[in-house]
Each structure stands twice: as C-alpha cells, then as structure tokens.
Amino acid sequence: MSESRRERRARQLQEFSNFDQDAPDPVPGLPPDPVSLSCQGPGPAIVEPAVDDVDLAGWCATETESIRSLLNTHGGILFRGFRPPGSELFQRFFTAVCPDSMDYQDRSSPRSVVGDRLYTSTDHPADQTIVMHSELSYSASWPALLAFYSDKAADAGGETPIADTRVVLQNLSAPTRERFMRLGVRYRRELRTGVGLSWQEVLGTQSRDEAELTCRELGMRYEWIEDGLRVEWTRPAVRQHHITGEQVWFNHAAFFHVDSVEPGLADALEAAEMSPFTTAFGDGSPITGEVATEIRSAYERALVVRPWVTGDILLLDNMLMAHGRLPYQGARRLLVMMGGPVSS
What is the span of the domain harbouring residue 177? Predict the structure, then answer.
C-alpha cells in the first residue's frame, strides 16, 4: 500500500525528532516535499525551500501540526532562504502560523510601529546588550508565539541569542529554584517622564483614570508620584507550559534586576532614587547580586547563538525559548510580531 503525504510527514517527524541527522530521504513514488528540515546541533529546527517558488505562508497554513510538533521539541524554527524576502512575506507568514496576533501592550522596551501589529525589535543603542528574557513574562497576559524577521543583518554582531527555558530552570541550583517556585517575583516600576518609558507609553493611554483601570486589570498596586506613576505586582517565576505541561523558567527577575543595568547608569539612578525597575522575591526579600549572577549563568549555559542572514525568519515558542540581543556594528533592522495570547 502506498504511503500518503500526511503519513509520510508524521513518520519523518518522528524519525527526525532529535535532529541529529539530515532529513530522511524522499519516499519513492511521491512528489518531493517543498521544504527540507535540518538542525545544526542544539537550537532551532531549520526549514529551507527544497524546490523553487515555495509559498511559505501557504505551506505553514497546511502544516500547523508539524510546526507545533517542532516547536514543542526544539522551542524554535528558523526559516531561511524563502522568496521574495520582505515585511509582506513576514506578515503573511505570521498570519498563517498565528491568526490572533497581538499589539505590544504593558511594554518594557521602546519599539517603533511599522505596520499592523508589526514592530521593530527593541530600539536600543547598538553598543549595548539586551539581557535574556521571555517576552512579557512579567505581565498578566503574554504571547505564545514570537517571530523575528531580519530585514537587514548587521555588518558584525547583532545576533539574537536564544536559550531553552526548560534547560535554564534545571541549570539553577535546587535552593534557588525552590525559592523562586515558592515565592515568585515581585516587580516594581517607576514610570517617570525622561527615565525609561513613561506611564503613557507603558499603559497606552493619556488618561489617569484609564491608567488606573489598566493597573487594576493587570493586578498592579499603583501610586501616583510627583513626576509619574509607581506600580508593583507579583507573578510566578516558574510556569507550566500551556501545551506540553512542562515547567519553564518564565520571568523578568534578572532582566529587571539592578545588576542588569549598565554599571555607570545603575549607580546614577540608584543615587537619585530613580531606578525605572527593580525586582525582589515575592515576599519582598531582595534578590541578591549573587542570585542574579546565578540566573545569568543559567541562561549562558543554555545559550545558542547563530548569525542572522537577511531574509531569515525565526519563530519562537515564547514560553520555551528566551531571547536577547548582542551588540552590533553597521545598520541592522529586525522586525517582530507576537500573538496567541496566554493568560495567567
């Protein structure tokens, strides 16, 4: 009995689950698949066109189960070499894999709007590192999926390092892991004009009444201060993945920690009592510099760094794969979309 394309796909995904070899050979008598699968060691699965003129969005729309299976195993998929490159391809691609795209709300980083729910990646000075994090893990709602499009790769650097949050969690010492699981993370932000993002930018409104309503909806305690708004809230540090059921390290404990700020700037902000964000354990006890260093080390030992090629699309399961950014030289333009909202 001949093997159908769907049966072959299921068999190949099973054989290919560990990605320790190239994709299996085609089955005789069936037309070739339009894409090829591979993986170069730890990190995302790699999907490339195997024939000319592949409609990436069309392929994704028919292979949602395959894409979900790859994400569950590897946390991310890199789509490389699809034509024609551009933001239109990227938007069509993301709509195919995630019809319910999201606006960037409860934001922590400056971004420029490029199109409908299409943004630049964080507008941050090129000479600075963006600390590893999971998008909106500090919020009451976060995207299940996150996708980046390399519109222009940097001349040097500018990689988007990624780290499997299942591995990060296991890289922490048992006492640190247990304490975070028991207490969670308490976040505090000072939303002041001229220091980080203003409350208007973070909460998406110019109205104090609407800002207070949003704070209550997000479970934030709030206090109006002389030149802005102070907010404080607590979230879990470890969550259960909504599909796989696995425990993942999912928080901004290190990202918002004072030790993650450039040293000179951190000293100046602390002296002026104007730090835009701080973190503590859920009971209010401090997260020491030693613990923050341990968290960064846990990320570093799980890190995968690959250079961008212009036209690349990187799709991440936001709960399974954290990301950051390395410094770069030359022009660089990375676009981002997010979607599939998950709520606590």
Answer: 166-300
